[in-house]
Write a structure and sequence with these properties.
By secondary structure, the chain is of the alpha/beta class. The chain has 6 helices and 10 strands; from the N terminus they run βαβαβαβαβαββαβββ. The longest helix has 24 residues, at 162-185. It binds glycinamide ribonucleotide (GAR). Glycinamide ribonucleotide is lined by residues 7, 9-13, 42, 86-87, 107-109, 144, 170, 173.
């Protein structure tokens, strides 16, 4: 299976996924990393591991659809079967989602449907919730609202800042995202409407449900 990863920034989730592939835990090949930002640190990470990283400049396109078509064409040229959004900070157009729905995953740093959209960690701190976390989900046309594969919960502490909460959540992002991708690649994820079932996974565990197996 060929994986394509879309990024916009620092690329720590990308690196966790690359490591899981290199260690043989995810039996797939990362064929391309695409960034919409020229200075994304994630592009350097791809380079470090010998993976092709490409910057596509959104300024060169007259519409979101045209840009997304160029991204989709590049993914298809690289025979990508599974598209991973890893800190990709652009809203995808419907034509892109139509093409990849069911094989398009995202990670979001909140327990969706709470705090969908921008700055979820800051909003969780400001709202005063006692728990937040992260979610890996299928991407649909509703922003940050597709079927949930796995979630991890973390406490929010009285003196938390956006940064401290983000850091606590990120540690789990680096575990649940490779795990969800491994399950996908191993063909264990079944989708039934909004509901996801991971075959043979252990459900009912805290702080991660279903339970982590390999990460
Ligand atoms: C991660 O926290 C990811 O969950 C978030 O951006 C960060 C990217 O970090 N994604 C979103 O907010 C998408 N809605 P990274 O570039 O180090 O992986």
């Amino acid at each position: 299976m060929n994986i394509g990863v879309l990024i916009s920034g620092r690329g720590t989730n990308l690196e966790a996924i690359i490591k899981a592939v290199k260690e043989g835990k995810i039996k797939a090949n990362i064929s391309i990393v695409i960034s919409n930002k020229a200075d994304a640190r994630g592009l350097k990470i791809a380079e470090k591991y010998g993976i092709r990283g490409i910057f596509i400049n959104p300024d060169g396109f007259s519409s979101r659809e045209d840009f997304d078509r160029a991204v989709a064409n590049l993914l298809e040229k690289n025979n990508v079967d599974l598209v991973i959004l890893a800190g990709y900070m652009r809203i995808l157009s419907d034509c892109f989602i139509d093409k990849f729905e069911g094989r398009l995953l995202n990670i979001h740093p909140s327990l969706i449907p709470a705090f969908q959209g921008l700055k979820p960690q800051k909003r969780a701190v400001e709202y005063g919730v006692m728990f937040s976390g992260c979610t890996v989900h299928f991407v649909t046309k509703e922003l940050d609202n597709g079927p949930v594969i796995i979630q991890a919960v973390v406490p929010v502490l009285p003196d938390d800042t956006e940064e401290s909460l983000s850091e606590r959540i990120l540690k789990y992002e680096h575990r649940i995202y490779p795990q969800a991708i491994k399950w996908y690649v191993d063909g264990r994820i079944k989708l039934d409407g909004r509901k996801v079932f991971v075959e043979k996974a252990v459900y009912g565990t805290v702080p991660v449900n279903p339970e982590l197996e390999d990460f």
